[in-house]
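pinging the channel bc i need a second pair of eyes. not urgent but kinda urgent?? the chain im working w is below, pasted from the shared doc
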Amino acid sequence: LALSNATQTKTITGSAFTAINTWTQVIGTADRDGNLNLYRNGVSDAVAVANTVTLSITDGTKDLCVGVYSGDETSSNLAGDWALPELIIGQVWTDAQCANSFNRERHLFNV
């Protein structure tokens, strides 16, 4: 998960790779101060607190990129399929909300 304001970027990476052909729910959260949290199957997997790079995400005119962004707006490396994508604007989900989302959707994929 990365958050960038065109001059600074903050990136976090989960602790484990996702197995091939295995459904995995991934949720990334970012607040207005640039704090990032990455959830895997409803559990927090990586956290970055905005203490060295302060980023603001208050500008609603910028693009949202999912995948790998290299600055040319055409680079996206996602080796898999998306199921049930959601974009939630205006609130950062809590640990409990991410866990509830995973538990609510996992039966759809026999997890």
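so The chain has one helix and five strands. and The helical segments are 95-105. — does that match what u expected or am i reading it wrong
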